[in-house]
Design goal:
The chain is an all-alpha fold. It has twelve helices and no strands. It has a domain of about 200 residues.
Length: about 300
């Protein structure tokens, strides 16, 4: 088998695809927050993702949870909360610091792998993760605190923990379930959570067609597809590696904002983007390891 088609290479490509879709979606979602609250955006994206993924998984014959409903329900709760706490962190700390704190998640994953699971994590991997976080901090201008308070810090740390949690859950469930099965059930449970928390009949009315188009994009192109790609990556490479590759997201988001929203980038932000690209390339070149088990099912 050629190197281009090795599972580890495919895993990194899946993770980069997810980061690209997340990044572009972030720039698009930013346009709707004036008319739809972040919590409602989280709700509608879960509904749309479940509405697309569940029928597709059923049509492919991979909706059977194989006795993993409890973990899939936990995954669904994680998916519902990770976006909400992320938005809270952005609101309380400012965009730069809030966005950067999410990417403490890969460090938590590496720590869990090393201290709890007893899996070897090389110094090079730790160094690449630190380099990636530095790059993310430069891109998001993490030093530009708008308001530092306890709730903001708690939200940021919670986001990072949830970010790490769904990587670890996805890696564990991926040993027995296809990525499509995991994500279909995950967003089905996330939708149930949002129905309970935010009644659908109170959803704001009178939204324009352009707003609905952006919400549909966030639900499909910014949620269903990138999560599917990310969980496909978790079936092929370790969760810590996928977490490091995920730091490419703010690089792509900054580039998308530059193109879509006409936002300029400073020299430091461009440097941060180059650092993240270097870290991701280094992780792929020197630290990825193929999974040992055969991959069955969809993605």
């Amino acid at each position: 088998m050629s190197h281009a088609f090795r599972p580890a290479t495919a895993g990194v490509l899946f993770a980069l695809t997810a980061a690209a879709l997340y990044g572009v979606s972030g720039a698009i979602a930013a346009d709707v927050f004036d008319e739809v609250s972040p919590a409602r955006v989280s709700q509608i994206r879960a509904f749309i993702a479940a509405g697309v993924l569940v029928p597709y998984a059923w049509s492919r014959g991979v909706l059977n949870p194989h006795g993993q409903l409890r973990l899939l329900a936990l995954l669904g709760l994680n998916l519902a909360l990770v976006g909400l706490t992320f938005y809270w962190a952005l609101d309380r700390l400012g965009v730069g610091p809030g966005a950067t704190m999410q990417f403490l998640g890969p460090f938590m994953v590496l720590a869990y792998m090393a201290l709890v699971q007893g899996r070897p994590v090389g110094r090079f991997t730790w160094g690449a993760a630190a380099l990636a976080l530095l790059g993310v901090g430069l891109i998001t201008e993490a030093w530009a605190f708008d308001d530092l308070d306890a709730l903001g810090l708690a939200s940021g740390i919670t986001t990072a923990a949830l970010f790490a949690g769904y990587f670890l859950l996805g890696e564990h469930l991926g040993k027995t379930l296809p990525a499509l099965t995991m994500i279909a059930w995950g967003f089905l449970f996330a939708s149930v959570f949002w129905v309970i928390v935010l009644p659908v009949w109170s959803f704001p009315g009178g939204l324009s067609g352009s707003v609905w188009a952006k919400l549909v994009w966030v639900g499909i192109g910014g949620t269903a597809l990138p999560f599917l790609a990310q969980f496909a990556a978790l079936r092929r490479v370790a969760s810590g590696i996928v977490g490091v590759v995920a730091t490419a997201e703010p690089v792509i988001a900054a580039a998308a904002a530059w193109v879509i929203l006409d936002q300029s980038l400073s020299a430091l932000q461009i440097l941060g983007g180059l650092i993240v690209v270097l870290a991701v390339a280094a992780v792929h070149r020197w630290t990825v390891v193929d999974v040992e088990q055969p991959l069955d099912g969809v993605f």
